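Task card 7
Instruction: Convert sequence to structure tokens.
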Amino acid sequence: MSGLIFPGLGQVFFKHYKKGLALIFTVIICLLIIVATATKKALDILTQLELNGEEINLETISSVAAEASLSNGSFITLLPWIVIIFCWVFGTIDAYRIGKKKERP
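Output:
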């Protein structure tokens, strides 16, 4: 469950609630940071287009978004993604380990 659905669900399934909820909340906070950063960047781009007097249409937005996505992100921008990947890998391995322990008689 941690590997396929959401990090931390495997721990919750195996009744390791603290660890599972910590993983779930960490990933949710990172996702919120990513969405907030992307929204701010999009609003900045739209404001810049408007100030330059360019017409705001789907084609202009697509080309500016493509340019922005090709620019290098800072480490701060990449940090939430790194944390999510770490939580996903850790959650999957930990849930597997917990499941194996519960299998043993």
